[in-house]
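Protein 1 of 2
SEQ + STRUCT:
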Amino acid sequence: MTEARTTLTFLHTGNPTGLKFFVEHGDSRCLFDFGREHAPGRALFSLGLRPRLGRELADLVAAGEAPAVEGVYAGEPWDGRTSVFISHMHLDHTALVRHLAPEAPLYYPAEMEPVRAGADSSGYLPWRRPVGTALADRETVTAGEIKVRLLAVDHDVPGSTGFLVSTPEAAIAFTGDCRRHGLHPELTAAFAQAVKGADLLIQEGVSLGYLPPIPAPPLLTEEEVIAELALAAAETKGLLVANCYGMNRERVAGLAAGCAAAGRKLLLEAEMAALAGWPGVLGDLEAVRADPRGHCLQLGFDSLPLLLDLQPPAGSVWIQCGGPPFGSFDPGSTVLEAWCARFGLELRTVNSSGHSRPGDIVRTVREVGPRVVLPVHTRAPEALVVVGVRSFLPQAGVTYRVADILSGAPTGSAPRGTHGRSGRSSPGSR
């Protein structure tokens, strides 16, 4: 009888988004996150192109935007061994959850539930039925010989978590998406202490290798962003439009407080209001047209044509503060600029990333002190260099023995339960 071994398979390394991976030991398999890559203009289904009605999953798999794995999707037999864990609600971590087999155990942080329920009820992100199990922070789930413990981190959406995954062979920590410049840096610091000494650390690295535009915008904390939005609410002479993301409930609450202090009524589009849990929903535009100085609107990219009806007066401002388009890499940015220019809107960007800055990534790795760190969720994993900690750069679609990664001599193989995908050996270490 072959001895059970712990293996690690990345279905997508998150370059730069869409991270998802398996940890397996014996007959048990745990899947962490199940979203789609956000790549406007690069992904086949982007810029308004959608999978065909009634063929959504098949189209996504055929286009490479959903993994070709067996035993996890609705419409085919569940494999009886895969449990699914979600770190937070962002679409690059959850967009495929609707396609999960109803029998597969599904777990997510309890603090995430209000955003999940709002996304589901509004149609923004329909969720699987049954919805799964909401777990408290620091709660542990046992799946065969694998134990998974939730450990809260600070991100720009409520209820974000990292994980400590324990098997008979190894302790594997996964940061999830996290930061130390948000409103709750103590959560991320506590995560690092709780997983201290883990064998492997799967570390998010969105900011690694990032080259800011010239001139570079200031690096703001979440607190500073909220203060800037409040200042804009007070000083803008005309209509204030804030393109924020409803899942960032703390930012919406901060914007609302600033608007209230400035005598503005904050109104959000219906889906964003549901995500934010905000009662003010944008409806009839006449009140806004009559009193633009008394209002602040959340409008997304798709709502730019509303400017034709609003006819914002001189002194109006559009602030990009978390909603798409996300930057110059997004083709929508030039379109947004054109609309703002056409209507004389001053276009500003006031934002704070939900992801750790490079120095804080290094700090987390040092505090955890793993035997090996795996930088993922980044275009530049090779940019993570921490003295005294060996890095391993995994490839998607390859199954690695964790013991081999730890020994420094990993080889890869095709994972079990794939639809015709071939693996290949990869040294990966440096």
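Protein 2 of 2
SEQ + STRUCT:
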Amino acid sequence: MTADEFADLLDRFGTDSVAWPSSSRNEAIRYARVSDEGRRLLAESIAFDGMLADSAHVPLAFRLRARILERIATNESPAWWSWITHGTWRPALLALVPLAFGFVIGNMTLEEDGGSTDASIFLAFTDLENFVELNESVAIDD
């Protein structure tokens, strides 16, 4: 068995020799006992498995579990949610906020010059004769 084959065996099946395929188990055990490279690869793999096992036990934040369970048991809502939902006037006020915002934006985009809309209407005519006729008829009507 070569070092690459042994490293591949450890990557696939782990450090427990019981999990190794029976066809190569005896040869792999012999390689791990006789070869310096085999002992080194096995030791690294065992250390890595130990590090993974230690990282699986992550401590909970201080009293986080207790606070979550307490909130579920008391059906307590956050302060901002209770402020919004309690009282009949608050939902109505919150519904009016987008309406007021749209009104303000709409007023900011209005054009104050009344003559500019008349001029923009006339820009729609591409034929100059029609523009002159229309302009003359407007002047007669005034």
